Amino acid sequence: MSLQSSEITPKELYFNRRRFLGATAGALAFGALPASGAKVNPLDQAGPMHNLTGEQPNARNMVTTYNNFYEFGTHHEDPAHNAPAWKPPANWTISLEGEVAKPKTLDLDAILKLAPVEERIYRHRCVEAWSLVIPWVGIPLSALLKQAEPTGNAKYVAFESYYDPHQMLSSRAAGIRFPYVEGLRLNEAMHPLTLLAVGVYGESLPNQNGAPVRLVVPWKYGFKGIKSITRIRFVRDQPPTTWNVKWGEAYGFYSNVNPNRDHPGWSQRREQRLGGGLFGQGTSINTQMFNGYRAQVAGLYSGMDLLRYY
């Protein structure tokens, strides 16, 4: 992905939110070890902050306390209260399966060596008509997917979240089926904007934001960004997705941000940018087609009726 100099945000925007190892840390290549032999934190080695919005990020406490993560509660404030007590498996792995030449399972250390770790500021648009601007840290999802060498039969990519009924809500309590599943068309998953995120604000993902690794697809509604990913399958047919199964009229498979396609319960033409306005209640703004990423992704949907394929 080619980035213009205007897309690189000055570090002063949130310098105090990013941790560095020291004055020479930026010069270290990812995977290198300092003289002490201690392991380098990949988040400290992230490259320039690419701003794909032209906007300043929301405050960190807004991004980490107002979340949708039904495994830890059905209200926006619940995950920040309930998720921190969750203890993810120490050796987190993601399996790559299905229509591939080389099925494999990789741990996070191996995954983060596949491509340079980047910081990208993206708009986040929730289907509930609120939005945020978030500085994510991660690698292009394509770097991981290519490792499995998808065959010609692979048309879609299906994702599955980690689920532990002893530490998370039951499906009955949450009102949706677990484990949470999502899907993308293969060309969407391979697009340069699609990010496999491992951090936010230069730090590891908090549990409530999808630790330790989640999907970020900035031109789609936020529920497409599946959290705590453990399994990825390459499949021939469009896979089921949690919210599409729950209420297909409201939550289509594609779920591209589209101000012309309303949710059954409300208009999608405007959104509430959280954190601004009087008393921090948010500022009402017009919703942009593809969440403002039309130039980069509209070609993926050439000739498609986006009111039908929503």
What percent of residues adopt helix (DSSP H or I)? 10-25%
Q: Low-confidence parts lasting 5 or more residues at pLDDT below 50?
A: 1-38
* Number of separate domains: 1
| Helix/strand structural class | alpha+beta
CATH topology tier name: Sulfite Oxidase, Chain A, domain 2
Task: Report the end-to-end length measured between terminal Cα atoms.
Answer: 26 Å
In CATH, what is the class?
Alpha Beta
Question: Which band does the percent of strand residues land in?
Answer: 15-25%
Shape: globular
Order of SSEs: EHHEEHEEHEHEHEEEEHEEH
What report would you give on this structure?
By secondary structure, this protein is an alpha+beta fold. It has one domain (5-121, 136-258): Alpha-Beta Complex (Sulfite Oxidase, Chain A, domain 2). It is built from eight helices and 13 strands. Strands 1, 4, 5, 8, 9, 10, 12 and 13 form an eight-stranded mixed beta sheet that branches. The radius of gyration is 19 Å and the shape is globular.
What would the keywords be for this entry?
globular; 13 strands; alpha+beta; Sulfite Oxidase, Chain A, domain 2; 310 residues
